[in-house]
Design goal:
By secondary structure, the chain is an alpha+beta fold. The protein contains 10 helices and 17 strands. The structure holds (3R)-3-hydroxy-3-methyl-5-(phosphonooxy)pentanoic acid.
């Protein structure tokens, strides 16, 4: 009988975006990408795993629902972890034959462009690696679940190297700086919609690779230089440089969406208004204080330094009134600060609830094993919630 292993894993939000695969099965990207890992105490996936001789088949429960284990991505992750365990001789042959049970949940909406699959696969792969006592880097296995998941295997600031090997062995994530390097760096996630996205990232990327000239230009001429520059900005804690590159790269990623045929549009009018407001705020401030970035959905992720959070929250509250003001900002606590009159004029208050809520968080650590016994599986290896 094996013990139950439980792990929590973070979300990551890219500042240099991954968009386009060179191999769809191995999930190999066309370009390097860079992200910050966000604090698991605010947003995380949690996964429990165990392997038992009495289990008849592999089983998986996601957010309280039994799902099929026969998804190619899931199968690839489990197969590769077992292959590593066999190569490292970390567990015996019998153990490798036993079936596994997996139970996982997110504490935030799934498929809302909030990087839930990244946290989910990083969590699954880290938990399985602990179960099978795999010691080597597992970012390339998390990548087989969801490309961006490989970056959630590490905390702080992370680079995913596109690599050049056809087998993907050099398409791995490495840490640029740990979470303690730039402790002032925080994030505000403005949730503009929590319904499922229109075009999945897989389909959106495929159309872009097949049709977008801009994607070719971006990969060859823009991303390599931006990647080097943003890594330097992170190392030197140069916020204005970090922010400028982040915004330009988000804009270019969405321009690639528009350049795709048929176009893939993820930003909404609310997203564009957020982008306008941030540019005005930075202009009036006289320096770049806030960066926006948008993934494959309408939600904005704002990166900013802790000292600027109270003023920016006041600005967001002013422009985007909520019908539930007490619950509007969740996550970290921050001081209240009245909005300076010069910022009032940026934009008139909009109709209520265009932004549903805001998650205030910060850069955080990578996946962590939970040892307080709060497993999602019971002693029999079945979901506790059932
Ligand atoms: O890993 P996927 O398939 O969910 O793709 C993620 C794509 C973006 O979030 C838009 C960009 C990124 O680098 O995370």
């Amino acid at each position: 009988m094996s013990e139950i292993i439980t792990v929590i894993a973070p979300v990551n939000i890219a500042v240099i975006k991954y968009w386009g695969k060179r191999d769809e099965d191995l999930i190999l990207p066309l370009n390097d990408s860079v992200s910050a890992t966000l604090d698991t105490s605010i947003m995380c996936a949690k996964t429990s795993v165990c392997a038992r001789p009495e289990f008849k088949e592999d089983g998986i429960w996601l957010n309280g629902k039994k799902e099929s284990f026969y998804s190619p991505r899931l199968q690839n992750c489990l197969r590769e972890i077992k292959a590593r365990a066999a190569a490292e001789k970390s567990v015996n042959e019998d153990f490798l034959q036993w079936k596994v049970h997996v139970c996982s949940e997110n504490n935030f909406p799934t498929a809302a462009g909030l990087a839930s699959s990244a946290a989910g696969y990083a969590c699954l792969v880290t938990a399985l690696a602990k179960l099978y006592k795999v010691k080597s880097d597992v970012s390339s296995i998390a990548r087989l679940g969801s490309g961006s998941a490989c970056r959630s295997v590490y905390g702080g600031f992370v680079r995913w190297h596109a690599g050049t090997n056809p087998d993907g062995s050099d398409s791995v994530a490495t840490q640029i700086a740990d979470q303690a390097h730039w402790p002032e760096m925080q994030a505000l996630i403005l949730v503009a919609g929590d319904t499922k996205k229109k075009t999945s990232s897989t389909v959106g990327m495929r159309i872009a690779v097949e049709t977008s000239e801009l994607l070719k230009h971006r990969i060859k001429h823009c991303v390599p230089q931006r990647t080097e520059e943003i890594i330097q900005a992170i190392k030197e804690k140069d916020f204005p440089k970090f922010a400028e590159i982040t915004m330009k790269d988000s804009n270019q990623f969405h321009a690639v969406g528009l350049d795709s045929y048929p176009p893939c549009v993820y930003m909404t009018d609310v997203s564009h208004l957020v982008s306008y407001v941030i540019h005005k705020y930075n202009e009036i401030s006289g320096s770049i204080k806030v960066a926006y970035t948008f993934d494959a959905g309408p939600n904005a992720c704002l990166y900013l330094l802790e000292k600027d959070v109270p003023q920016v929250i006041s600005l967001i509250k002013h422009i985007f009134p909520s019908s539930n003001p007490d619950k509007f900002v969740t996550g970290l606590q921050s001081k209240e600060e009245p909005l300076s009159p010069v910022f009032m004029s940026i934009c008139e208050p909009q109709k209520q609830d265009l932004i549903k809520y805001v998650i205030h968080t910060k850069v955080g650590d990578g996946p962590t094993e939970i040892t307080d016994g709060s497993h999602l599986l019971n002693e029999a290896g079945l979901p506790k919630a059932e």
